[in-house]
Amino acid sequence: MAYMSQEGYDKLVAELKRLETIERPKASAAIAEARDKGDLSENSEYEAAKEAQAHLESKINRMKVQISEAKIVDTSRLSADCVQILSKVEMTNLTTKAKMTYTIVSESEANLREGKISITTPIAQGLLNHKEGDEVEIKIPRGTIKLRIDKITVG
After folding, report:
1. pTM for this structure?
2. Which of 19, 22, 120, 153 gives a 20 to 30 Å CA spacing to 139?
3. Residue 89's beta-bridge partner residues?
4. Contact (Cβ atoms closer than 8 angstroms) between residue 30 and residue 52
5. Which residues contact residue 59 at a Cβ distance below 8 angstroms, ignoring those fewer than 6 apart?
6. How many CA atoms lie within 13 A of 52 on its CB side?
7. Is the pLDDT assigned to residue 2 strictly greater than 80?
C-alpha cells in the first residue's frame, strides 16, 4: 500500500490514461509500420518497436498496481505535531547552517525540483516522528548529516 496525496493520485491516473489512450496506439502503429517493411527475421525496426511496446505495457501494469494499492491521505486529519507523510519540514543543516524545506511524499510523487522527497529516502526516514526543535543525525550515502527541525506544517 502506498500513501499519497489526492493530487499525486490524480496525476498518476491522468498519466495512466495518457499512456493507454495515446502511447499504446502509437506503439501498435509503430509495430504495424515496421511489419509492413518486409522480412521480420532481419527487421530491427520491428524488434525495437516490439521492445518499446513491452516496456510501455510493463509501465502501464506497474501504474495500475500503484493505483490499486494507493491509499489517499486526508490532509485535514494530519497533525503538525511530528513529521509524517505529507509533512512540510523546514530544517537547518547544523554543519553548514544551510536551510532546507522538503515535503515528504510517496515514492511516485517525489520530485526534488519541487522540494518533494520520497518517504523511503534516508532523510525522510530520519525525520519521521520527530518534532519541531529536535536535532537528528541521519546517515546518508555521503556520511552523516545533523539537522534541526525548525518548523512542521501539513500539506
Report:
1. 0.69
2. 153
3. 102, 152
4. yes
5. 19
6. 17
7. no
Question: Residue with C-alpha cell 518517504?
Answer: 119
Task: Give CA–CA dist 94/101, Å, rounded.
Answer: 14
- The pairs formed by 119-122 with CB atoms below 8 angstroms and a separation of 24 or more are 119/3, 119/85
The residue type of 54 is A
Report CA-CA distances (Å) from 110 to 4, 29, 62, 105: 10, 33, 16, 6
Alpha carbon separation from 11 to 14, 105, 109 (Å, rounded): 5, 14, 9
Contact (Cβ atoms closer than 8 angstroms) between residue 117 and residue 58: no
Q: Nearest 5°: CA angle at 139, between 117 and 115?
A: 15
pLDDT, tens digit (0-9, with 9 covering 90-100), for 21-41: 999 999 999 999 888 877 766
Non-local (6+) Cβ contacts of 110 within 8 A are 116, 117, 118, 121
